[in-house]
């Protein structure tokens, strides 16, 4: 939970002309998505928008999932938070015989995934790190955004990058290119577990991304993770307040000493 | 051709409080260049400022030039479009004997290329990917800008990077450094074909760059490429409009179905 | 020394509607640091904020220190200048036996370095380029900022990256991650010479960073370096003025011809 | 077709004390595999042992499969030729929830693939380039060799590397490691198309490897490829003979001039 | 423990003309080292020469040291086993001021480490991955070999590589170069913990290397590790025997089923 | 100068059962080249075959050419010494328009360079590090070898690698591939200075290569370099002898103390 007033107050105590900023601005669900979410998802996504990424990482890791953070991709916009649910596609280097079979059986999977996307979905394209052939572009992504799509993760590259950057979604990729998907790549599998960087993403996973990476949370543990992490965040807000008041790090962080623990109990009472 | 009004209109149809942005802002030739261009170049550069990079890539590729896109360099400013004509320089690792001969025969080529640059030129420095010695800096680039220089591409690095980023030109490079060109590098060849990333750039090529890379168009095909690509863009504007109105991707993109083709014909009539 | 008026004036001479910008904005010491510096440091830091990075590089190199520029790290904010004094920490891959001894003898060194930091200090963490385990985060950095810390250099990664980017300090790193320091890394040595990229940084070195890298200046030569470099910068301002007035690069840069040398002497008289 | 006698003869014509060696020694199917192959496979594998890798690459490419050569892996033994049929396994970064499901449904796939391997099979493990966790080792490979396994391709690493190098099979990998497969990786899919370097390998593909890489031939075109390539090889033997006799490359390679074409017709008659 | 007779026997059972080789040849301490070792070290080094690298890795990892395997370096000779005790040196990028102090206080550390080396020592040079400046060469290594030096690990490069490869020691490095150590590097610390690849090596650690990497064993746990691993190896020899006799992998590896466990008990009785 | 007898003698003094080998075997000009060299070249190449690579590097560097060593390529055979004279070719990424002009004006340059090669020449192909398209193969290299070609350096890749490795020449490359030169590359310039790794190679340069890299010696300084380096080598042989006799490194290497200097003078008298 964020208490930005506490920061301003703390600043005042230090008698500085301007309070020190030590925390990034808070995020909220973009309206074009929020309007389309189910009530349950609106609550879930709201909590995911608020949770500390590091606290959530600790909670996911301590649940037995240490390989949960993707930091190999680059976000197009550094000031957004990605929150959404994974819908996965696996690409392979192009091959005439397989491509013919695959594309006869189903539309190309970037079309299909955009068309079937639910509000809040994140398309996760495993393109094996390919840097010379794109998996999708602005036109299909426009359809995806109209349907309430929240983001795109590509272990590979995309075209129309300036258009993608202007859209309200969050996009992470290796790099951009102006090519079409062929002749180097083809979409092969839909809604299977895929590899992005050093992490496996499964359909339905919850994703939370900031400028330094994307956390992958299996759906089965997301509530537990959020409970733990948000509680941890509350303590960090208190610790931040103490530090801004000029207290030394010892006794404050990472664990509060006895005296500060008491103050924290009072702090919690006041704030609820 | 861009029809940004159509987007706002489409947004209105969807009855959203704010229309969805799905396209990057349009670009125009910077005034300090435009003023100095010949009338023919002003028209050509204007079309290059407007064309879709991806449509142009398809046209260049289908003319028999698939190795035409440089995505290995990083632009200093992500919100500009580079448009210009290539003026090339090839650098080599420094060598006393060759350097003496070369520099006796001609001024160092970053000076000479800036001094001889025509309005709208892009200096293309092939420095073999070097990351510890720069090829040029803010002083010589000031002269280049005064002459109407449009951009710089370096497969290597440059110094004075904050100054370069503040100038109105577009600069792409591997990274920056504070060093001078010596003792590691020397300029060796002027106005010869050079390698930038995985692409050959020849003197006189037209270059179009966005944040995800630079398209290289041989001068002999630039008009044909622009005709094809701008026509394609017009259809994409119509397709984008349909998608924003909520139509599914099938039947709209990449090819219009019969019913939408008819609508497109009417759309074209209305817009001219 | 910067003479931004000269640039506007030059622009006027060229009779352009808007003067050409060819120089990045000037920097000054952030107030939260300036207030805490000793008078001597306030003068020193002021000169370091003003000096041209490239001129200073030349001066440091000509003093016999050619390995002085770090361009392997990425700054979180591209529009700031880092100025500060190095306080170093060396990390090693985690090892139970050594960790137990080290952490029994002293607090973890990211805590200790933040707690002992003097105003204007830059924490320099040599983490061997590690990309999957962080060395520090927003909480300890808050303490560091409260104490007047000026910046952080990490040959490795940090957590809480959006918070760090919102703080008034300058941070350079390989990438971000959401992990804690364990289980992959441990802090091992404090205030010893460390390796960052291809440069050795020693405790007490003065650091000056821009978006393209960080210059390392041994304390013993910093005054000599500044004298030389600031004098060089003054000449560059004059050269820039001539170039903006439309003079060719030959005779102006890198060395002034006889006629321009005389003009420079007059220019210097006028400006003092 | 190889005519090593022709080379010795050519050497004699040049009146050198020792003939020039310009061709690698011929290969044959290792006895432990040959004994177990079906008669049809013995013929097929024999032709694959003999065919020029470059001629076969041209034939595969001209059939519409340009992405057919893997040169990102390193062979443990540089003097062997790999010939075999692909049996594929896909690995993913480990994940507790998926691993439990997968391993409940089927034995770990390196065990299963070794146990189900047919004579002449090549295990193809797509481990996404992982360098810190192995997919298999000497014990399971012993079982694989006993069953007539011909080779292993790993886009990742293996353990027990000295033992693997001592076995009669051909092994290609990124590097070695002493770890077990867990805790970083898990086997996920069996006999599906996989990515190795920049190539898709499908179950049943024929593989031919030398020290510089592995050619992937879809089963449906292998006979056509071999017919074309072996005929091309015969001409290359003749061309090599001419070159060893001292003829200039023009008129001999890549295409024979009229006079040499006639000689080639005679040469073919003599040799059959 | 190795039972190579068992392999030949197994081969015989399969009625093959030649037995299958599935295991690398055994190693022993080179005589020029063995003669100089203390009796205790001769026993210890003998066990380290015999132990399975993978079994030892498991034992070290399960003792709480998972970061124990270096696979980033390349051995000059692929058919040797490195066994020895770490003597460490840390290099840093050259810096005139520090170098003068360091070299005034002690001889350059590659001289000193060679001169002080005890029989069976392995010089471990942490040069931060440097590829353009060497840390040592054949002359100083000759002195090291005369003193009974067992090997060299360099996270960097060495000169005189063909001479080093001809010596009886084991050398692992990033690459070679013909340069001297200056002007790019300097030796800075002696007998401190250093980083090689992703592993910390401390003075006194026991090192065991094969062609795929080097295992680092803290001295305090080496006996426990060897006990566990050699017992595991004995079972693997039995498992290998079963597999060579044609038994399926299930029930044999990784764990013996009940029936095979009984056979193993008998096997152990017979062999002692 | 090599004195291998001294080594055996030294070994005898140490009373070891087998003398320590501390030096790679000597090299000589392969007969198929030696027969074709001019008398002057036979002397020059003989000295280059004998000189210490590191001593020659020091001499070249002290003549003002520090960027003279290529260690980015891999030799196909690690036990050979390359000696020869550079004949250079520059490749560029393929481009239809330029290719047509280039190939109309001259045969493809790998044909031409092989056909025009003089005995002892080394073909130096600058292919910009390309890894997916080869510049030449076994057929053209056969012609090159017949003409007395000594070696090939490719900053890129070649086909027919096993055949090349079986030939008596020395080949260095990035990697191999089975492709032809098109469609990705084209030869563009002949006998111009080229970049290989971080070194400029000019036509006529003398090249000396071992398994760890290739030294580039401008022709104008080769005699001076050899005089200096061979004299240095003679002293190293004496130093090696002392070290093998058990003398400490101090007083012997890198500089002889007074007493050892006298012994060296006597040693030189005895050996001439």
Name the features.
homohexamer; alpha/beta; 9-stranded mixed sheet; two-stranded parallel ribbon; 13 strands
Main sheet overview of chain A: 9 strands, mixed
Number of extended strands of chain A: 13
End-to-end separation of chain A in angstroms reads 11 Å
Residues in helix, % of chain A: 25-40%
Task: Report the order of strands and helices of chain A.
Answer: HHHHEEEHHEHEEHEEEEEEEHH
Q: Tell the overall outline of chain A.
A: elongated
Largest interface: A-B, 33 and 39 residues
Mean pLDDT of chain A: 93
Query: Assembly type of the shown chains?
Result: homohexamer
Detailed description of the structure:
The first copy, chain A, is of the alpha/beta class. In chain A, 39% of the residues lie in helices and 21% in strands. The first copy, chain A, has ten helices and 13 strands. Chain A has helices at 4-13, 31-34, 39-50, 53-62, 96-105, 109-116, 138-146, 161-166, 222-244, 258-270, and strands spanning 69-70, 74-75, 82-93, 121-126, 151-155, 157-158, 170-173, 175-176, 185-190, 194-196, 199-201, 206-210, 213-217. In chain A, the strands form three sheets. In chain A, strands 1, 2, 3, 4, 5, 7, 9, 12 and 13 form a nine-stranded mixed sheet that branches. In chain A, α1 packs parallel to α9 (222-244) and α4 packs across α9 (222-244). In chain A, 54% of the residues are buried. The A-B interface holds A 31-32, 107, 111, 114-115, 131-132, 137-143, 145-146, 157, 159-163, 165-168, 175-180 and B 14, 16-18, 20-25, 52-54, 56-58, 61, 69, 71, 78-79, 198, 210-213, 215, 236, 239-240, 243-244, 246, 248-250, 252-254.
